[in-house]
Amino acid sequence: MTTATRKLREKEELRQLILQSAKKLFVEKGIENTTIRNIADATDYSVGTVYVYFKDKNAILHDLHTIGFSELGGYFLEISPVDDPLERLKQMGRIYLKFAVENPDMYDLMFNIKEPLKHLAEKENDGCEAWDEGIGTFNILKSTVKDCIDKGYFSGHEEEPLSFMIWGVVHGMCTLEIRKRTKGLKFNRPETILTDGYKEFLKMLDKV
Amino acid sequence: MTTATRKLREKEELRQLILQSAKKLFVEKGIENTTIRNIADATDYSVGTVYVYFKDKNAILHDLHTIGFSELGGYFLEISPVDDPLERLKQMGRIYLKFAVENPDMYDLMFNIKEPLKHLAEKENDGCEAWDEGIGTFNILKSTVKDCIDKGYFSGHEEEPLSFMIWGVVHGMCTLEIRKRTKGLKFNRPETILTDGYKEFLKMLDKV
DNA sequence: ATAAAAAATGAACGTTGTTCAAAAAAAATT
DNA sequence: AATTTTTTTTGAACAACGTTCATTTTTTAT
């Protein structure tokens, strides 16, 4: 059975080659400027081959979006396991911001672009598949917020909507930046508006 | 000169017809599912005519994005001119949220879709045109925040980054919703997560 | 009634995602 | 070693997209 296992490995390797070529092109020239033909060229295979390994473009985008979440997970490893949960929460936000700034295209794919989720909806078993990657990441945030509440922070607040709101703060600022809504504005310090904005949020957290 | 002025009016009328047809199609079937041919059909004119009145698709998207800002301005008229600036700030956020929920496609066009700003960049005089609509709206927010600071709220905070952060909160939650990142998650009360999240932010404001 | 100007047209172009019969390569069988 | 079967790869072809522009139609001026 040595040929069968080898074939399986080769299939997986080509799959990864296509994925990594696509990712490289995305970062180099933007997602919307990358075509299937570009990806095929970059892998030295034909368009038809790409479609053997991926159902359609959305499938590629979904797989790359999943890779993005795994990379975000890598960033989160930086969080020092300090005792104070509020301190961990603050670090989470900072790292989330850092990831978005350093990987704007990946961030966009993970949290803004609709295609990856369309691919989920298409393989509908019961109408709508769950967004596992998003759920997982949100649960990390939510459990940190819960730790805060348990330690006496955020009195009078509710865990889930508070977590969503906190997600909204960082996501909102990241997305305004990535979707060029900060560039068109005339900030006093445009190059640091993201971290400056986040600092204001941290000040609020200290008062709560 | 009666014919010349009538022609001018007729040109403007057709221009508006195209814009309104486009807007209707956007709302009905989504922006990315609306083609120039759709718009031409809806106006009972040909594709070529559309291109007489608009340089390209981005020009249409930009004009519609501007209309969106004017509609948002209409929503803001609801804000009661109450003395307490913090109360006005809270209302602003609520209305911003309401606008986004009631006009998701328009909101997306105004704050997420890149094409309207691409159109701005294309008529570059000096490299990059200013995003007047965004600047105007942000200034309203910023001056309300300034009023708050002047009345003793937000001590220790800086006007501009604080305003950006507040924008981020509401924009972030709206965009997670519009870009289907809340649907994939399993919230306890999915239908009210936006307003619930905003309520958490209001609680924070009351402590600051 | 005729000439000049303006407005509207739709066929055609290049590019996109996608498909699929045919060709090429690899594996299995005799 | 030769042949058959299976797997893999291919790229021409399709429909739909944004866009252009020579031509036609309509309107205005003479």
TrEMBL record, chains A, B:
Segments forming domain HTH tetR-type: 12-72
DNA-binding region(s), chain positions: 35-54
InterPro entries: Homeodomain-like_sf, HTH-type_Tx_Regulator, HTH_TetR, MT1864/Rv1816-like_C, Tet_transcr_reg_TetR-rel_C_sf
Pfam families, sorted: TetR_C_33 (PF13305), TetR_N (PF00440)
Membrane-spanning parts: none
PROSITE patterns to which the protein is assigned, alphabetical: HTH_TETR_2 (PS50977)
Protein name: TetR family transcriptional regulator
Organism: Flavobacterium cyanobacteriorum
Lineage: Bacteria, Pseudomonadati, Bacteroidota, Flavobacteriia, Flavobacteriales
